[in-house]
Structures are given as structure tokens and as C-alpha cells.
Amino acid sequence: MFEALPTSIQVFEVGPRDGLQNESAMVATADKIKLIQAIAEAGLKQIEITSFVSPKWIPQLADGATLAKELHLPPALGVQTSALVPNLKGYESAVQADLKQINLFMSASQSHSKKNINKTIEQALAAMAEVATVAKADGKRVRCYLSTVFACPYEGKIAADSVSAIVEKLLAMDIDEISLGDTIGAATPKEVFQMVKSLAKDVSLSALALHFHDTRGTALANVVAGLEAGVTIFDSSLGGLGGCPYAPGASGNLATEDLVFMLHGMGIKTGIDLEKLVDAGLLAQKILGKKLPGRYLMARLAEREQSMKATA
Ligand code: HMG
Ligand code: MG
After folding, report:
1. Is the C-beta atom of 145 inside 6 A of ligand 1?
2. Any idea what DSSP says for residue 63?
3. According to the model, what pLDDT value does residue 156 have?
4. Please, which residues bridge with residue 204 across strands?
5. Residue 23 half-sphere exposure, CB side, CA atoms within 13 Å?
């Protein structure tokens, strides 16, 4: 173990989308922009800023078009912004917003697929193909999330064979990156390792990302299993915000600070400034008016408070 770890990895920040889609409070567009700016200042290069889905399904992100128009990140930061897109209508909004990358999504379980996008897996694959064809012709980079790859809140364990069959079909669409989602945070490290190793027979590891929710506390252990299996892209969310409103029990994503702290401790570079990330987490807490579940964030803020008291 730990003999062939990568020297650097890419962190894909999903907080402004996966995090805020699950908040009951409506966050003002201006506050979302400040949050994205703070995340970008911390050195995140991939930020999913919103989703272009039906506002009836996800009212929290109904301001996606305005947000994308008003967000101006300094080009020197080199950030690739992207948005979640379920269909051609969403794709058109992403084009209007001049996004260079779109993130499609579908599920490996029929029940979650129906609940989340009102489509069977077969209908979802057709929708993905429709958007991917247009997007690739337009020169966009296309990522696709595959949700519930380990377990579904309605069906329980998902067979690895059905996951690889879908992955194969997504690859045939010339999709650049597939993010495997443990939507309800039920995976354990050995399953992750085996799933990645088995997919790696057909997929280049550089095209695979892992997306963990920390519902049952296994997210970081699963990252280590993913690293061991050769994955170099990991999704996470500022402060551990997050969840899927159509997956009961899906609590927060793996917290970005926890991920970065662990990786830096293991000598793996991320290009992220952890102290600035904590500043962004503090800002998120102020905006949302509550404490976030990220463990490193909690610990570091307590240390900061302690040292302020000591110097007062
Ligand atoms: P539907 O009701 O079957 O769609 O929803 P429809 O085509 O019949 O359209 C219904 C209405 O929605 C129409 O408006 C459309 O114009 C509108 P109306 O005529 O009633 O006024 N509409 C749209 N509006 C804006 N943008 C669009 C769009 N498409 C249709 N793109 C649909 C189907 C896919 C739209 C819906 O089910 C939906 O929006 N679902 C999104 C659910 C969602 O965002 N879930 C959370 C994200 S997934 C997740 O969190 C997992 C992930 O993090 C990975 C993991 O953790 O595993 C990615
Ligand atoms: Mg998610």
C-alpha cells in the first residue's frame, strides 16, 4: 500500500451546485458569486457553479443564468467553470452562459433515475447522447456523472455489471470524463478499489473521477482506495455541503478541506491553499447562517478562535 500514489491530483469543486441545491434556504445570487470567488482564490481550478435543470425541481439554483452572467473570475486564476445539464434545454442555457464545459448526469439505478430526472436509464442514455453529440460538435468538454454506482436509496446494492454497461455506452458518446457517484455515501473502500480496477480495463483512468458523499463516514477511506486504484480526480464540496434532494439519506459531500488536508499530508499536491479554503468555508457559514460539517474546517476555525483569544 502507498507505494504507487500519484504525486498530484485534481480536486473538482461541486459545492456551489451539489452543496447549494440541497439547502432549504435560498442563497442570494450575489452571495453565491462571492463564495465561488473565494473558492477560486483558494486555488480550485474546476468549479461547478450551478445547474441548468428545471427550476420546479431545484428552485435553489433557478438563478443559474444570472449567476453565470454576473460571475467574472480573473482569467489569471485559470478556473474552468461548468454547470450541471440534464437535457438540450439546459445545454442551451450553458451555451448562453458561455461555459466551456458541461456536466451531464444520469443514474445507474432505474428508481433513482425516475425520481431524479423522470427518465428510465434507457431514456437517460438517449438524452445524454443527444446533448453530448451537440456539445462535442460545439467543442465543449463533457463530463458525465453516473449516480448510485454502489447503492441506490430505493434498490439497495447496484450490480457492477450494470455500471460497466452504462460506462461503456457513455464512452461511446465521446464523453471526456465520467464521475462515479456514491450518491448516498454507502460505499466502502474495497468496493471502490474493485469497481475502479474492473472499469479500468475499458476506461482510461485519466477519464475517471470519484464523487463521494460522506453520509456514513467512509468518504476519505474511499478516496484512499481510489488513489490506490489509480484515480487522480476527486469531487468534493466546500465545508461538506451537499446532497441530492431526490436521494433520501444523501447527506453532505466529502468536504474539500478534509480531502485537501489528507492529500497534502500524504505528499500529494493539489495546488490549493488550505488556509484560503478555510476562509471560503467561513464565508459559507456566514452566508448560510450555520456551521458546516467539514471536520478540518471545524478544527481550524476552533484553532483560529483559540489563538485570537490568546493574543487578545
Ligand atoms: P420533466 O418534468 O420530465 O421535464 O423533468 P419536461 O421535459 O416534461 O419539462 C417539464 C418542465 O420543465 C417544462 O416547463 C420544461 O420547459 C422545463 P413548463 O412547460 O412546465 O413550464 N424544463 C427545464 N427548465 C429549465 N432547464 C431545463 C429544463 N428542462 C425542462 N434544463 C428534468 C425532467 C430533467 C428537467 C427534471 O427532472 C429535472 O430538472 N431534474 C433535475 C433534478 C436534479 O437536479 N437533481 C439533483 C442533481 S443530481 C445529483 O445531485 C447527483 C450528483 O451530484 C452525483 C451523485 O451524487 O451521484 C450529480
Ligand atoms: Mg452528488
Report:
1. yes
2. T
3. 93
4. none
5. 23
Position of cell 450553458? 94
Phi-psi domain of 289 (left: phi exceeds 0; alpha: psi -120 through 50; beta: other): left
The CATH number that domain 10-311 falls under is 3.20.20.70
Q: Cite the active site residues.
A: 244
What are 46's three cell numbers?
A: 474546476
Angle between helices 295-311 and 256-265 in degrees, nearest 10: 80
Task: Please work out whether the CB of residue 57 comes within 6 Å of at least one atom of ligand 1.
Answer: yes
CA–CA distances in Å: residue 240 to residues 99, 147, 181, 251:
25, 18, 15, 9
CA 18 / ligand 1 centre spacing (Å): 14
What's residue 243's pLDDT? 76
C-alpha to C-alpha distance for 139 and 146, rounded to whole angstroms = 22
The pLDDT, as a whole number, for residue 248 is 76
Q: Contact 135/142 with Cβ under 8 angstroms?
A: yes
What pLDDT score does 2 carry? 84
Q: Decide whether any atom of ligand 1 lies within 6 Å of the 147 Cβ.
A: yes
Residue 191 backbone dihedrals phi, psi, to 5 degrees? -60, -40
Question: Is the CB of residue 79 less than 8 Å from the CB of residue 36?
Answer: no
Q: Which sequence spans correspond to the domains of the chain?
A: 10-311
- Tens of pLDDT, residues 125-143: 999 999 999 999 999 999 9
Report how far residue 292's alpha carbon sits from residue 52's, in angstroms, rounded to the nearest whole number. Answer: 25
Check residue 244 and give its pLDDT: 73
Mark the ranges of the chain whose per-residue pLDDT is less than 70: 250
Closest CA to 93 of 49, 155, 147: 49
